[in-house]
Design brief:
elongated; alpha/beta; Rossmann fold; 44% helix; 3 domains; 12 helices; DNA-binding; 347 residues; six-stranded parallel sheet; homodimer
DNA sequence: CTGTTAGCGCTTTCAT
DNA sequence: ATGAAAGCGCTAACAG
């Protein structure tokens, strides 16, 4: 249509220089006239490049949060199966700084074309981000954004809003003047997960806005010492029988739910994050009232897709990508099935 | 790999008979060995067939429910732009039986290869479904299933569960012993929308299970006479000042919200269906507490995808496809954006 | 019953 | 700076 050969059109499409301005203009005109959009699946079959994409994220067991992200990533690789993508996972123990360092070092050693990062420890992540930047390796975050770094994009929920919504929900389903507990899972040293810090800020912000901060108690428990927790939680409830609502900012809601089950407590409302298998179970049992879900699969899927699009077409997407904040409860759980839906935001 | 030509492989893939058992077996073996999955986008470019798909659904204005379904359908057509799909819409007025009949008659006249139906009037839909069946034209439903017909598939929420969840939510956020109103929008004659009947059953079922049926009042209002409603609602609230929660089973929650706004009522909780623009607005204003959303875009998208896959590959999916029931409230509304997500359940 | 051929949209290589 | 040709996975038409 533009009176040039397909080769020239391709050169224009990919900005591979050495095309006369005249040809460029002619082609651009036709392109917009026919509303041209490249079809990545067709590109794929003739693309000769190979891509190595490395994913650094916490190791997780079946039914846990990071497993969802992982399967979203693999789904995207599968969708682009005509592109030669090698996807390597560098897992780390999310409760061990050392293992995180080792994993991140591995990422660099693998000399990837692009990286997906599931951050936990902020400082370590900044170090990695800077090294990637120095090597001109694009990267995206899933689960949370680390400020002070420059990823290609990030896919997470707005964690502040998540905490805020948790506060709104727990106060909506409990009588006025109730008292609340914020249970916090603590990890190594004082290092809180990036996500928890932000959720907490949102949560407290709601209570401050409504002049109810004085009705929130805070209790820390360790994920690594389940036995101590039993005692800790037990003592807490005995000493504070007036508590009507509990919020666990991370996915450990089932720990409290199990305590409820064991001690036949059913008048206390409970809300937590992440639709893990254990939480799902306790929702069905009626011990967890609401779970906020951040679509981990969708996050992983989008992250991989964005990278592939960037590597193949240089397509840049907006950096900030907040996922929906899903509210899951006993009555809509069965229809949620994040597994079966995968999302294509950037056609 | 199987020692046969691509032509033969293609014949096996599409069951276009006349292939020796020996070849079939050899090919089947290789296919499973390499975990072969056809790539529909690659098929598309060499496919010579043309498809005419007709959509019969209520006409809707910008920001209303059926507009979402429509855009999901168009998105799927766009995703398969290499396939020659002609998509025609036969709209009808969802409050007029006559217009529905005319629209459905049109569908048949157009002699489509497949049909997407957004049903409202049950009996008319059954007539259409039977005629399509007689002509061997496959069809799928969106929004709701019509029992007694045999679609290829349907995509809707579980409407009973939706009503049930509405009941659960409204009772969770109001004090014990509150009284409730179920507002019902009435259409021509006694003809209630298919969807409303099922939601109502779910709603009442929750109240019956909890022995609270006596605390539910029921009020009907007409969508077509907004002026009378103002008076009707007004009288109702004056005579029943003890009401603490209101549920509108369809998308007309904003009608009540507007009444609240005008009369400065803010102690009554309100829940309705469908994230239309007007409802969105009233969520932000704080007059609607929760909206249940059924992902109309996703429904349309899936419906079209399933038909295309069926027409091109004969792929059959399971008939019953329940979409997630999303709970939307002021704090997660901004991140919901169904528009930007489109779903691919049947990779 | 099967192989051959051409061609879809796209990219790359090589020659000019 | 450009075109021609080959080839990716896939389907269709034709010849045997």
């Amino acid at each position: 249509m533009a009176g040039v050969s397909p080769g020239t059109v391709d050169r224009v499409l990919h900005n591979r220089g050495d095309v006369s301005q005249a040809s460029k203009d002619a082609i651009a005109l036709v392109l917009s006239k026919v509303n041209y959009h490249p079809n990545i699946h067709l590109s794929a079959i003739s693309l000769k490049k190979k891509f190595k994409i490395v994913v650094a994220m916490p190791k997780s067991y079946k039914g846990e949060y990071w497993g969802g992200a992982r399967s979203g990533i693999l789904k995207a690789v599968e969708e682009y199966r005509n592109i030669d993508i090698t996807c390597k996972f560098c897992y780390y123990n999310q409760f061990s700084l050392d293992s995180c360092r080792t994993s991140f070092e591995n990422v660099i050693q693998l000399n990837p074309d692009a990286v997906i990062i599931g951050p936990t420890f902020k400082d370590e992540t900044i170090v990695l981000a800077n090294r990637l930047k120095d090597n001109n390796i694009p990267f995206v975050y899933i689960d949370s954004m680390v400020e002070g770094t420059a990823p290609l994009a990030f896919f997470s929920t707005n964690l502040f809003s998540c905490g805020y919504l948790m506060a709104k929900l727990i106060t909506s389903i409990t009588p006025p003047d109730s008292e609340y507990v914020l249970f916090q899972a603590i990890r190594v040293g004082d290092e809180s997960a990036n996500t928890t810090i932000l959720r907490k800020a949102g949560f407290m912000s709601y209570f401050e806005e409504h002049q109810m901060s004085d009705r929130v108690h805070r209790v820390s428990f360790s994920v690594l010492e389940p036995d101590r927790n039993e005692t800790l939680i037990g003592e807490y409830f005995e000493n504070n029988p007036t508590i009507r609502g509990i919020v666990v900012l991370n996915s450990r809601g089932y720990v409290i739910a199990n305590y409820f089950k064991k001690h036949h407590i059913d008048r206390v409302k409970l809300i937590c994050s992440d639709l893990t298998e254990k939480n799902e179970h306790e929702i069905k049992n009626g011990f967890i009232d609401f779970v906020l879900c951040q679509r981990p699969e969708m996050q992983g899927f989008c992250a991989m897709k964005v990278l592939v699009q960037y590597l193949t077409f240089g397509t840049v997407v907006k950096m900030e990508n907040f996922m929906p904040l899903d509210i899951i409860t006993r009555e809509n759980l069965d229809y949620y099935n994040e597994t079966s839906d995968t999302v294509v935001p950037f056609s």
